[in-house]
């Protein structure tokens, strides 16, 4: 990250019960020195041995703010679960700020991630075709032209940024619009492959029925309903370090675990127009490696570890 760059965008940190990964992500945030830090924490689940102490240790780690910074905290007193905690936490975040860079406790960013997000938040603030900016590139070194990023129909959330109006527009953790969208064939407009449409139908149906404790399928759906695009960088800017037994969802390491991050070059080279890169999207694929549908979808999205 350039010595001349100053981070002015608020940063959000979503935490729970993993002191080890939280400490590493918090160290990266400390290096970036955001002027506002918003911390969202869930509480321990009843009957889980040692979880209360692990949650307390996480809160001690993120209390060590030693740079000039306004810190806002939304700490749950009882366990809300992934679905309700993240959704309600981000509702609270966007009651406080107009735009934000968002990291979970297992998403370790390269320093250039913060500048990348900040510059593109400013550039696309008024372009409602853009739903969010991601720090993730799962193309494994493959490039698509000389631009610094491309526009995709896929919304990866291992390190991302968005604006209040996009989040508040039609995000609904309960997916009330899904039955109508299902009947009207929304996924046929968004996804070209029949197998992919089947998988997403199952994922959204299960989330709507409350069978999956998640918040991120709802965010993807909100963007698809609005026909928005996601910005994905030409270089992977965030490494997910949270795969393993302590993870909420990504318990089995696959190809997306610990993908190395690297710096992106500045000044950014911008695409000529805001339009989906179909070649890049076709190259994206599920890498299930004998895991369940839900794990494959979550990895593909870049979901919560």
Automatic annotation (TrEMBL):
InterPro entries: Nucleotide-diphossugar_trans (IPR029044). This is Glycosyltransferase family 2 protein.
């Amino acid at each position: 990250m350039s010595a001349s760059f100053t981070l002015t965008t608020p940063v959000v940190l979503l935490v729970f019960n993993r002191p080890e990964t939280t400490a590493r992500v918090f160290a990266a945030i400390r290096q970036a020195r955001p002027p506002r830090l918003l911390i969202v924490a869930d509480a321990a689940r009843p009957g889980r041995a040692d979880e209360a102490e692990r949650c307390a240790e996480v809160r001690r780690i993120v209390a060590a703010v030693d740079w000039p910074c306004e810190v806002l905290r939304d700490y749950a007193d009882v366990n809300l679960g992934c679905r309700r905690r993240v959704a309600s936490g981000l509702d609270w975040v966007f009651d406080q700020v107009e735009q934000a860079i968002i990291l979970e406790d297992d998403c370790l960013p390269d320093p250039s991630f913060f500048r990348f997000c900040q510059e593109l938040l400013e550039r696309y603030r008024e372009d409602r075709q853009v739903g969010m900016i991601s720090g993730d590139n799962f193309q494994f070194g493959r490039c698509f032209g000389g631009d610094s990023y491309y526009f995709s129909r896929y919304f990866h959330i291992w390190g991302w940024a968005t604006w209040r109006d996009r989040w508040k527009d039609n995000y609904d953790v309960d997916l009330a619009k899904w039955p109508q969208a299902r009947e009207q064939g929304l996924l046929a407009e968004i996804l070209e492959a029949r197998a992919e449409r089947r998988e997403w139908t199952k994922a959204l149906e299960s989330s709507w029925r409350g069978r999956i404790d998640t918040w991120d399928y709802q965010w993807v759906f909100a963007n698809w309903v609005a026909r928005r695009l996601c910005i994905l960088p030409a270089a992977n800017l965030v490494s997910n370090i949270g795969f393993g037994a302590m993870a909420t969802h990504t318990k089995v390491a696959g190809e997306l675990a610990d993908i190395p991050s690297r710096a992106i070059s500045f000044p950014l080279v911008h695409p000529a127009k805001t339009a989906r890169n179909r070649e890049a999207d076709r190259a994206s694929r599920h890498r299930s490696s004998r895991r369940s549908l839900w794990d494959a979808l979550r990895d593909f999205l870049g979901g919560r570890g």
